[in-house]
Recover the amino acids of this structure.
């Protein structure tokens, strides 16, 4: 994929905390509509969910993972 094409593609990871307290990060990257579909599915199962925009090949920021682990936002 060319650099200009990468700039046009938005990638999202879905991060969730299950009702058991496990934090999970999607292995795949989603487009916006697919990430939203996954969010709805996970929330219906009782999970707390964040959709995180990420550059192609990047990881979810540690602050997002920590927020889901602890239930406390760094912004608070």
């Amino acid at each position: 994929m060319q650099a200009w094409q990468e700039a046009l593609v938005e990638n999202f990871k879905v991060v969730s905390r299950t009702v058991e307290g496990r934090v999970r990060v999607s292995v795949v990257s989603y487009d916006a509509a697919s990430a939203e579909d996954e969010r709805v599915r996970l929330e219906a199962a009782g999970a707390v969910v964040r959709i995180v925009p990420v550059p192609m090949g990047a990881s979810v920021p540690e602050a997002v993972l920590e927020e889901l682990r602890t239930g406390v936002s760094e912004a608070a």
Remarks:
- The mean pLDDT is 88.
- The first strand starts at residue 11 and ends at 17.
- The longest helix spans residues 32-44.
